[in-house]
Amino acid sequence: MLLQKIKKKNYVTIKKELENLFFDYQDNGETSINKDIKPKLIHQLCLQLDVQYNITTSNGFQLSFIKKQL
After folding, report:
1. How many CB atoms lie within 10 A of CB 65?
2. Are strands 61-68 and 10-17 parallel, antiparallel or unpaired?
Protein backbone atom coordinates (compact mmCIF):
# COMPACT_ATOMS: atom_id res chain seq x y z
CA MET A 1 0.00 0.00 0.00
CA LEU A 2 1.42 3.36 -1.06
CA LEU A 3 0.59 6.25 1.23
CA GLN A 4 0.73 9.75 -0.17
CA LYS A 5 1.10 12.76 2.03
CA ILE A 6 -1.12 15.50 0.63
CA LYS A 7 -0.04 19.05 1.25
CA LYS A 8 -2.93 21.08 2.59
CA LYS A 9 -3.67 24.27 0.71
CA ASN A 10 -5.96 27.13 1.75
CA TYR A 11 -6.84 30.16 -0.34
CA VAL A 12 -8.74 33.28 0.69
CA THR A 13 -9.70 35.98 -1.77
CA ILE A 14 -11.39 39.23 -0.81
CA LYS A 15 -12.06 41.80 -3.53
CA LYS A 16 -13.95 45.06 -3.56
CA GLU A 17 -15.53 46.21 -6.80
CA LEU A 18 -17.75 49.26 -6.83
CA GLU A 19 -20.29 48.63 -4.08
CA ASN A 20 -19.68 44.89 -3.65
CA LEU A 21 -17.32 42.88 -1.48
CA PHE A 22 -16.46 39.43 -2.88
CA PHE A 23 -15.30 36.71 -0.47
CA ASP A 24 -14.00 33.31 -1.53
CA TYR A 25 -12.39 30.61 0.65
CA GLN A 26 -11.07 27.34 -0.79
CA ASP A 27 -9.14 24.38 0.55
CA ASN A 28 -8.14 21.02 -0.86
CA GLY A 29 -9.41 18.96 2.08
CA GLU A 30 -10.75 15.53 1.23
CA THR A 31 -13.15 15.04 4.14
CA SER A 32 -16.12 16.77 2.53
CA ILE A 33 -15.58 16.02 -1.16
CA ASN A 34 -18.92 15.57 -2.94
CA LYS A 35 -20.89 15.78 0.32
CA ASP A 36 -23.81 18.07 1.06
CA ILE A 37 -22.72 19.90 4.19
CA LYS A 38 -24.47 22.66 6.11
CA PRO A 39 -22.06 24.16 8.68
CA LYS A 40 -24.12 25.84 11.41
CA LEU A 41 -21.51 28.47 12.28
CA ILE A 42 -21.11 29.58 8.66
CA HIS A 43 -24.88 29.75 8.31
CA GLN A 44 -25.23 31.89 11.46
CA LEU A 45 -22.40 34.25 10.46
CA CYS A 46 -23.84 34.72 6.98
CA LEU A 47 -27.25 35.49 8.49
CA GLN A 48 -25.63 38.20 10.60
CA LEU A 49 -23.84 39.58 7.53
CA ASP A 50 -27.08 39.41 5.54
CA VAL A 51 -25.48 37.49 2.64
CA GLN A 52 -26.46 34.50 0.56
CA TYR A 53 -23.55 32.06 0.54
CA ASN A 54 -22.57 29.19 -1.69
CA ILE A 55 -20.73 26.05 -0.57
CA THR A 56 -19.30 23.57 -3.07
CA THR A 57 -17.44 20.38 -2.24
CA SER A 58 -16.61 18.95 -5.65
CA ASN A 59 -12.88 19.64 -5.27
CA GLY A 60 -12.29 20.18 -1.55
CA PHE A 61 -14.29 22.85 0.24
CA GLN A 62 -15.26 26.25 -1.17
CA LEU A 63 -17.30 29.01 0.48
CA SER A 64 -18.18 32.19 -1.37
CA PHE A 65 -20.49 35.15 -0.98
CA ILE A 66 -21.02 38.72 -2.13
CA LYS A 67 -21.77 41.49 0.36
CA LYS A 68 -23.39 44.60 -1.06
CA GLN A 69 -22.07 47.75 0.57
CA LEU A 70 -24.51 50.41 1.68
Report:
1. 18
2. unpaired
